[in-house]
Design brief:
Layout lengths: L1 H6 L2 H15 L3 H15 L6 H21 L7 H9 L6 H16 L7 H20 L1
């Protein structure tokens, strides 16, 4: 077993991850999360309805993934948010409304999305994602 630890790149990976964390003053996971959030927000730069719809769907998926990675349980998104809101400062009402909008976007191809409403929803998701990652 020692042979594999010495000859694999796993220990090197762990060492460099610690070095990056130390010099950047933030966790490696937080840097990756910020990078992914920027990619999601970048989809809205053109101001198209399809860009906003895609960004909202991806933000919802990212929040779900973060909460599951943190160990929160729930069979549905609503249960997951309710279990999380007791421990993390997430505004459950805003996120559940945003999730309902995401469901409308995904399941109704005729759904019309206003840019101002989309911007508010993305801001809610961004705050929830950052709070969930920090908590």
């Amino acid at each position: 077993m020692l042979y594999f630890y010495v000859n694999s790149s796993y220990l090197t990976y762990l060492f460099f991850q610690d070095v990056v964390d130390f010099f950047s003053w933030q966790s490696y996971n937080i840097k990756a999360l910020n990078k992914r959030l920027k990619k999601i927000i970048k989809k809205t730069e053109l101001g198209t309805e399809s860009g906003y719809k895609l960004a909202i769907a991806e933000a919802d998926d990212l929040l779900w993934q973060i909460l599951e990675d943190k160990g929160y349980e729930g069979e549905t998104f609503e249960q997951l948010i309710e279990n999380t809101s007791r421990k993390v400062r997430i505004n459950a009402e805003d996120i559940l409304q945003a999730h309902a909008m995401r469901n409308s976007i995904v399941y109704d191809p005729q759904y019309k999305l206003e840019s101002e409403k989309a911007k508010k929803t993305l801001a809610d998701y961004e705050k929830a994602i950052k709070d969930a990652a920090a908590g």
